Amino acid sequence: KKDVRILAYESSCDETSTAVIKNGRDIESLIVATQIKSHQRFGGVVPEVASRHHIEVISQITKEALSEANCTWKDIDAIAVTYGPGLVGALLIGVSAAKAASMATGIPLIGVDHIMGHIMAAQLKDEIEYPALALQVSGGHTEIVLLKDPVHFEIIGDTRDDAAGEAYDKIGRVLGVNYPAGKTIDAWAHEGKDTFNFPRAMMEDDDYDFSFSGLKSAFINTCHHADQIHEKLNKYDLAASFQAAVIDVLAHKTIRAIKQYKPKTFIMGGGVAANHGLRDRMSAEIAKLPKQDQPKVILPDIKLCGDNAAMIGAVAYNLYNDGQFADLTLNADPSLEL
Ligand code: KG4
Ligand code: ZN
């Protein structure tokens, strides 16, 4: 069988990324141009700034991805691009670049959902056996997704308000941590203890949905109250208490979903899947299940949990095999739903 090589683009938020992926599995090249420094002084991603940076680097990193993979356009079987969800102006840069390349070369185009990308980062690490169950936790989304096969899936749980990563970033701001705050809060959490006992919303409900805004408010109120009475709280204990609440809910609901749906593989994806506490907890909880009920666990490499084009290439390979191509009418869809 002939190898399938895909050149992939990702530009939905604050990373511009290109990659060449062979057979949906092997990363032949991966370039990630991050803009985090440019956004940090604003405390979050500024859409216009993001678009401008994407434009500046996208041609250059297309060339770099090809040359690092020792490829020319002739070696590429499909061009893949994230077309949503994300910032519309940011998405448009990747979509326009991919469409231009497809038009100029005649290479077929594939549109990819960013969230599916986070889920399929696992495919770059190990073979996913289906049905699979994914906990997708990023800055914009928090979902439990059941995958029947590489291209058919169902969302069985979702957040009713904030995404997990968003909650990390918001409480991080209160603690004076630069955006994105998740990594630092994770590190602090390991230095502290769960002394505050923040609420675990919806944990005992018999659905698979989440809510993190109550936790965020409880956290912020605790900090403001301490400020008013000039009491200094221990930031490590605050971080540990917040993280324990997030992980308790995520782990509890995900394990219940695993017990109900009995997937062959459990996958984690998205920026928050880089969280050490969550990775350790999920692995430990799954190891406690009876042997015959334990799914294979695939935790993507930490550097592939954040936004990158390799994961987009992984999804595109599955769509390629399923014959799902796009044409030049492909447009950015900022609120694209899985
Ligand atoms: O998936 P991602 O790169 O972008 C989106 O598609 O949203 O996720 C970024 C999010 C940010 O909210 C960031 O704070 C969070 O992932 N994050 C973490 C960790 N590393 C990144 N959250 C918790 N623990 C971490 N170690
Ligand atoms: Zn993302």
Automatic annotation (TrEMBL):
Main location: cytoplasm
UniProt keyword Glycosyltransferase, yes or no: no
EC annotation from Swiss-Prot or TrEMBL: 2.3.1.234
Cofactor(s) of this protein: Fe(2+)
Lineage of origin: Bacteria, Bacillati, Bacillota, Bacilli, Lactobacillales
GO cellular component terms, semicolon-separated: cytoplasm
Organism: Lactobacillus amylovorus subsp. animalium
Name assigned to this protein: tRNA N6-adenosine threonylcarbamoyltransferase
Enzyme class, UniProt record, top EC level: transferase
Pfam families in the cross-refs: TsaD
TM region(s), chain numbering: none
Residues covered by the Gcp-like domain: 29-313
Binding-site residues for substrate, renumbered to this chain: Q136, V137, S138, G139, G140, D169, G182, D186, N275
Domain of life: Bacteria
Similarity remark: Belongs to the KAE1 / TsaD family.
Record's subcellular location: Cytoplasm
Keyword field: Acyltransferase, Cytoplasm, Iron, Metal-binding, Transferase, tRNA processing
General function of this protein: Required for the formation of a threonylcarbamoyl group on adenosine at position 37 (t(6)A37) in tRNAs that read codons beginning with adenine. Is involved in the transfer of the threonylcarbamoyl moiety of threonylcarbamoyl-AMP (TC-AMP) to the N6 group of A37, together with TsaE and TsaB. TsaD likely plays a direct catalytic role in this reaction.
Cofactor note: Binds 1 Fe(2+) ion per subunit.
UniProt GO molecular function: iron ion binding; tRNA N(6)-L-threonylcarbamoyladenine synthase activity
